[in-house]
Amino acid sequence: MSAQIFRDSAADRTFRAKWWTGRVVIYALLIFWAIVALFPIYWTMSTSFKMAPDVMKGSLVPWWDFTPKWLGWKSLGLSPGTIFEPSTVRGEFLRRFYNSAVISGVSSLLAVALGSLAAYGLSRFSYKFLWMKNADISFFFLSQLILPPVVLAMPFLVLYKELALLDTQVGLILLYTLSVLPIVIWIMRDQFAGIPTELEEAAMVDGQSIWGAYLTIILPIALPGMVAALILSLVLTWNEYFFAALLTSTYANTLPVMVASQTGSQGISWWSMAALSFAAILPLIIIGIGLERFIIKGMAAGAVK
Amino acid sequence: MSEGDLLHVVASDNIGPTRRSLGLALIWGSPAVLALVALAQVLQVWGGYDFGFTNWRPTLYAYVLYAAALCWGQVLVKGEQGKRILFVLPAALFVVSLTVFPLLFGLIIAFSDWNLSSPDGRQFNGVANLVQMWHDPFYWNALTNMVWYVLAILPEYIVAFALALMLNAEIRGRKFFRVAFLMPLMLSPVAVSWMIGKSMMETRFGPLANLMKHLGWAEPSFFSSPWIAKTTIMLMDAWTFIPFMMIMILAGLQAIPKELQEAARVDGATGWRAFWEVTFPLMLPVSITSVLIRLIFKLKLADIVINVTSGGPGGATDTVTSFIFREYRDRSNVGYGTMLAMVYLVIIIVVMTLLMKAAERYMKSSY
Question: Which of A2, A104, A187, A260 is at a distance of 20 to 30 A from A14, taking alpha carbons?
Answer without folding.
Answer: A2
